Amino acid sequence: MNSLGRDGQQVVWAVVGTDIGPLLLAATREGLVNVVFHATEVVRDQALGRLADRLGTEPVEAPGSPLLAEAIRQVDAYFAGERHAFELPLDWSLISGFNRQVLRELASGVPYGAVVGYGDLARRVGQPGAAQAVGTAMGANPLPVVVPCHRVVESDGGIGGFGGGLETKRKLLALEGVLPEPLF
Question: Where are the domains of the chain?
Answer without folding.
Answer: 12-79, 97-175
